[in-house]
Amino acid sequence: MIFPLKKLWALPTLFCAAISCRKAIDIDFENAAPVYVIEGKIDNNGYCSVLVSLSQNVSDATAFIGVDSASVTVTEEGGAAVSLRRISKGVYQQTYKGVPGKTYNLAVNVKGNLFTASCKMPAKVNMDGLTITTESISGSRRYVANVQYADPAGEANYYNFVQTINRKKAGIVYVADDRINNGTAVTYPLLYEGNFADSYSAEIKKGDTVQVEMQSIDPVIYKYWYSVKASASGEDIMATPANPVTNLQGGALGYFSAHTAQYKKVVVK
């Protein structure tokens, strides 16, 4: 779920972070008419899902407002369109394995409104390891998940990491590029770069099961998640509030990501 601006937007998992931004500055956000929100994903493991919903004003934020009666298709460039099935209100899915290097096109038709997007699935970068370390953060010792991978040399790579703790998403955006570590072995700590108190509402504790999904993502999706992160952490606090960068055409908020995905988990001892 994303909230359009002139109102404060936020994905459900980023709502707390967005509220922390409101604490830092008193802004009189104007209400606006609801718009469609599309959050689409296809990966190399057979997962293909599209959420179709309506935006809400920050003052009215409740649950996910799913939209029924949407026609949703995903098409591999040069291939046939694959229709996604309605699983529940606003949730459309299909078992469809993407192929790295291929471009995928999304089409969502809702009550005569057509929204489209295109995204190329990057090559997979292997996730070599997942470890837990203890770090001194703001004067306290904290458990931190660290992802190990070897960044390919001679090309630009972009990554998104999704952390869950005991099957609950941490609600923080972790994205990285390779501008300073192209072609090197990387250990990437999943640290939050904003309001400490809000970020550790799902703090890692001894005995927890921590899972990390590593995604190799297209540059436009990196820009989307980076803009989400910047707004939620207050990095763009001096700028006029704006919705995240999107690859959707037709006026909807959200994104469509074709990415590789791999998972590792560890129990904190």
How would you sum up this structure, described in words?
The protein is mostly beta strands. It has two domains: 3-12 and 124-242 and 261-267, Immunoglobulin-like (Sandwich), CATH 2.60.40; 36-120, Sandwich (Immunoglobulin-like), CATH 2.60.40. It has helices at 15-24, 196-199, 219-233, and strands spanning 36-42, 47-54, 70-76, 81-83, 85-88, 91-95, 103-110, 113-120, 127-137, 140-150, 158-165, 168-169, 174-177, 185-189, 209-216, 248-249, 253-258, 260-267. The protein has a five-stranded mixed beta sheet, with no helix packed on it. A five-stranded antiparallel beta sheet has the order 4-3-7-8-16, with no helix packed on it. Strand 3 and strand 4 form a beta hairpin. It is globular, with a radius of gyration of 19 Å.
Low-pLDDT windows of residues: 1-29, 194-200, 236-240
Tell me the number of structural domains: 2
What strand line-up does the widest sheet have?
5-6-2-1-17
Global geometry: globular
CATH architecture descriptor text of the largest domain: Sandwich
Major beta sheet, specifics?
5 strands, mixed
* Distance separating the two termini: 35 Å
Query: Mean pLDDT score, rounded?
Result: 84
